[in-house]
Amino acid sequence: MYTSRGLFERDKLIFSSQMTFQILLMNEEIMSSDLDFLLRFPLQPHVVSPVDFLSNSSWGGICSLSAKDEFRAFIEEKLGAKYVEARTVEFSKSFEEASPSTPIFFILSPGVNPLKDVEDLGKKLGVTLGNGNFHNVSLGQGQEVVAEQAMDTAAGQGHWVVLQNIHLVKKWLPALEKKLEHYSQGSHPDYRVFMSAEPAATPAAHIIPQGILESSIKITNEPPTGMQANLHKALDNFNQEALEMCSKEAEFKAILFSLCYFHAVVAERRKFGPQGWNKIYPFNVGDLNISVSVLYNYLEANSKVPWEDLRYLFGEIMYGGHITDDWDRRLCISYLEELMQPELVDGELTLAPGFPAPPNTDYIGYHAYIDEMMPPESPYLYGLHPNAEIGFLTTTSENLFRTVFEMQPRDAGASGGATVTPEEKVKQIVDEILEKLPDDFNMLEIMNKVEERTPYVIVAFQECERMNYLTGEMKRSLKELDLGLKGELTITGDMEELQNALFLDQVPRIWTQRAYPSLQGLSAWFADLLLRLRELETWSTDFVLPSSVWLSGFFNPQSFLTAIMQSTARKNELPLDKMCLQCDVTKKHKEDFSSAPREGAYVHGLFMEGARWDIQQGIIMESRLKELFPTMPVVNIRAITQDKQDMRNMYECPVYKTRTRGPTYVWTFNLKSKDKPAKWTLAGVALLLQV
User: Fold this and answer.
1) What is the percent of the chain where pLDDT is above 70?
2) In angstroms, rounded to a whole number, what is the distance separating the alpha carbons of residues 146 and 161?
3) Which residues form the Dynein heavy chain region D6 P-loop domain (predicted)?
């Protein structure tokens, strides 16, 4: 408990898992080889799952697990259920452990003010600003002297001192450390110090002296999670008086409540990762307050509710001002189109499935309505499918195992007499990769095969060159490391970094710099690289366009899609800037095609996230439960002129290279939909080239 209260929620389970594993290893209740298996998650490659609800990689994990018989239900038995339930320690309990030599250190989170806890407890114990025994100093330029004087007074007379934002005064921190140490003995027994600071963004940016951290009780305070808590919190910014201030009271209250829902949903949606938002934005209470002021002014100045103006101001300026990604802006505006419309005032509008907008009531009534009517927390409240939660929990557990894995000891002795040393393990990996990597593409020979350099041929050249650039560096760095491991070369920092990455099954940084975006571990990444090489080798032997092109296999899929437009424009003598791509989803998979289409290209290797493609009806449909990334059939992509584009009943679907979305954006494919497109926008529907 002592350590956990000073950790953020996202780190608590990682910490307790690491502690548990270490204790179990010491007590010899588990074998280090079993732990290694659990953390590495070795897969049997190239297996096909026999059941719908398990992906091939999950099945590959089960196949390798079936070779071990010691695994059973494990968490509650060894950890105990209480470690799985999160609960916070009351501040007054933590305070009991504080003393003149043990200050309390608050690690700040945006949107939370821990000072309130200190003030409330102070009031109960008669320590307040009014009584002159409570000193509150917000650190910044020139405040260091004020802080030192407050500490001098407090230590002598038994007062409390609050030092806020000490991370802003880097140069003064050593002096603060000395002063805390000086007064830790011989001070008045009632003297207490409370400090607060923001966490450092990177390990290198840590500036709080170790002495301060070691002597303090560290406490994190994070904002509440879930829609219910956040909707209450948004509404808490107002009061009964605020609800009555507008002459159009009914309209004002209805829109204000809907704005609070919007505020809560955009802030909380972040937890779903890139399916929630492509980037993380600092939406804050200021955005909500200023939006309510704008709402008040516009309702007072207009006879009718100016819905369009309000949506524009909230979505493009107040909240939209933070947003830098076009797809995120579309999402923000789609939310406002759903939540800000005349039905909110005149009819029946549901803010989320099962949550109708409240009837006209007072301030207390709105809070009560949230408690009574809000459905339990689920992705539905955000317009997302329940699968989004599976994805978010999977990412969390992958992160937990990866972090614990990186914390394990490396030397053979510490891992319980393992037979293979880390060096030997790395040597095996080096040998295996070097053995499987083919020769570089001979660019001169390849270029001489071709009479006409068509747009497709140029794409193939570029891909071969990029592949040489990557595999060349892989071979160079591996051979160098091999010599280092044999003792024939001095091990450099770069070689050590490469060795570490290979041991941890991570793709080394010097390779990813030359590669394509990927979220895979090294073994899966290398298997995928070999498939890409094979595809390129086939294509570059005769330069005949494959019957179906593996779009995910390119370093630069955009160049291939552009080539489709270029070759159509050349053939039909049309200007390239007037062209666009049309995507016709076929009803078949790649095995069913024996030749390329008359126009454009057939492509495969696309996955849908957030929904699925219905082959029979040829439209986007709701996902099936536990099908996170259903495969798309082959898509015929051809170029047409922009004036021929039919945008009716179409969802403009972004295509990304990986689940991180954002910077891996490739293109937009228009897909048919019977539902209105906003449904798929809120559900975060996208096509991915790799999952």
Assistant:
1) 96
2) 11
3) 100-220
Place of tokens 């080239």: 689
The domain in which residue 534 lies consists of 420-544
pLDDT digits (tens, 9 = 90+) for 401-420: 989 988 888 764 444 445 67
Same domain, 437 and 527: yes
Integer Cα distance of 355 and 227 in angstroms: 12
Give me the torsion for CA of 509, 510, 511, 517, rounded to 10°.
50
393: in domain: no
Asked if residue 237 and residue 202 are part of one domain, the reply reads no
Is the model's pLDDT at 304 over the cut of 90? yes
Phi/psi for 402 (5° steps) reads -65, -45
Helix (H) or strand (E) holding 672: strand 665-672
Element (H, E) at 350: strand 350-352
How far from 19 is each of 3, 15, 40, 219, 504, CA to CA, in Å? 11, 6, 18, 19, 20
Query: Quick one: 535 and 556 in the same domain?
Result: no
Residue 496 belongs to a domain: yes
Within 10 angstroms of residue 326's Cβ, the number of other Cβ atoms is: 12
Residues 6 or more apart whose CB falls under 8 angstroms from that of 570 comprise: 455
pLDDT tens-digit profile of 584-629?
999 999 999 999 999 999 999 999 999 999 999 999 999 999 899 9
* Residue 411 resides in a domain: no
Q: Do 522 and 501 meet the contact criterion of CB atoms below 8 Å apart?
A: yes
**Of 634, 683, 619, residue with least CA distance to 391:** 683
Burial class (CB in 10 A: 0-12, 13-18, 19+), 231: buried
Residue 457 burial (CB count, 10 A): 20
pLDDT of residue 78 exceeding 90: no
8 A C-beta contact, residue 680 and residue 673:
yes
| Whether residue 391 has pLDDT greater than 90 | no
One domain for residues 362 and 450: no
Q: Within its chain, how far is the Cα of 125 from the centroid? A: 43
Clarify whether residues 508 and 596 are in a common domain. no
Q: Which amino acid is at 96?
A: E
The number of C-alpha atoms within 13 Å of 27 and in the hemisphere containing its C-beta is 8
287 in the same domain as 139 = no
Q: Is the pLDDT of residue 84 over 60?
A: no
Q: How confident is the model over 173-205, as pLDDT tens digits? A: 999 999 999 999 999 999 999 999 999 988 888
pLDDT at 415: 46
Q: Which of 48-57, 267-276, 334-343, 417-426 has the lowest mean pLDDT?
A: 417-426
Instruction: Look at residue 34 in the predicted model and tell me its pLDDT.
Output: 83
Distance CA 429, CA 193 (A): 54
Q: How far apart are CA 306 and CA 299, in angstroms?
A: 8
- How far apart are the C-alpha atoms of 480 and 492, rounded to whole Å? 10
Longest Cα pair distance anywhere in the chain, in angstroms?
92
If asked whether residues 236 and 352 sit together in one domain, one would say yes
Q: How many domains does the chain have?
A: 5
Task: Please report which helix (H) or strand (E) contains residue 502, including its range.
Answer: helix 493-503
134 shares a domain with 192: yes
Separation between Cα atoms, residue 678 and residue 681, nearest integer Å = 5
- Within a domain: 244: yes
Q: Which tokens is 633 given?
A: 């059939």
In the block, which residue shows the tokens 């790395």? 426
Domain end marker among 384, 402, 431 = 384
Starting at the edge strand that comes first in sequence, how are the strands of the sheet with 607-609 ordered?
607-609, 686-688, 650-656, 665-672
Give SS3 for 514: coil
674-686 pLDDT per residue, tens: 999 999 999 999 9
Tokens encoding 353: 């499935």
**What is the tens place of the pLDDT at every residue in 114-132?**
888 899 999 999 999 999 9
- What CATH number did the domain enclosing 686 receive? 3.10.490.20
Residue 91's pLDDT is what? 85
